[in-house]
Design brief:
Rossmann fold, alpha/beta, 2 domains, 12 strands, six-stranded parallel sheet
Amino acid sequence: MKIAAFGHYPIHRPLHGGQRRVAAIARQARAAGNIFRYVPIYSTRGYPDGSPDERRSAVPDALLPRLHDPQRREDLHFSDTLKDHPLIEGLIRELREFAPDAVQFEHPWLYPLFAEALNRDPVLRRARLIYSAHNVEAALIDPHWRAEAEALEAALVARADLAVAVCDADARHFAGLPGAAEVVVAPNGCWAPDPETVPSAPLDGPYALVAGSAHPPNARGYWASIGEIPGFLPPRSRLAMAGGMTHLITTDDRFRRHAQMNAEFVVPLGVVEEEALSGLLHHARAICLPITEGGGTNLKTAEALMSCKPVIAMRPAMRGFEEAERLSGVHVADDPEQFRCLLRDAMTGAIGSQRRPDEVAQYGWPAQLAPLISRYESLAA
């Protein structure tokens, strides 16, 4: 099966959750014998490290000021910025030459750029349309833009032959939209650690790991769950902070107000490469998931579960992973005080984990994406 996929970020060096999910879909689709061609249409301001091939479809520099206009939303207004641009005309020509069996959109934002061609072109209209949803976008967007996002998402679901959801709650939402066709659930996951490799320790001494992208809800969850100073941690232990959320936290006045104390308890690492993240997960004494809001499912939850380390999570972090709450070492808090107490207990060794790799293999990408990969086969039939 030939699949053409479009998204708004490059994936050759996946760092945040969306990039990792798309990269995993591409890898699993190709492993199953499909030809999977992913084309990112993206801003080089947000993603300056696209590969040479990916940069062919990057938004032209002349359009970046309009794309990043503070009065607009970059994702929602992608199509408005690039409408009738030669870049899109060229991509449609390439798409026609590729003659895909299916066209897949990661997120809904780019669909309007290709909608007319998919409906009218004699080659492209034969392709099945797949909406690969990472969450219910309209539910997370600023209320000022919500109606516009809802209309876009609903139009794509109504046109799609298949919608892909990351959890049952999202699947129910999409299935309830007018004109919705089939919805398949393919949750988020991660790659299993290599049992033969012991990564080097990135930090000295005991630490808990918190990691997340620069998605604002990650920062809000941190402040709500951990607070302005993680002074509840036992002596000589620290909180290692990785990912884009690091910048959101450390530049906040709440962090700066207690700079000296936070320097004692927090190790801000910023965005780290995959190898460094593997080391952080392997050597952490506990993995904490201070997630208090949002939609879909969280890749960090899958990583935490597959680490087999004690997991301290706020309940929203377990969305889509509810059955994992019965596993050894998975501790779920309903309020910040309970979260902090559990994290302290994990760092002192009062609570631990006996999870085995075979118990969490179901949270790896091959198992999580299997429903989608199987569906590709039946779409091609």
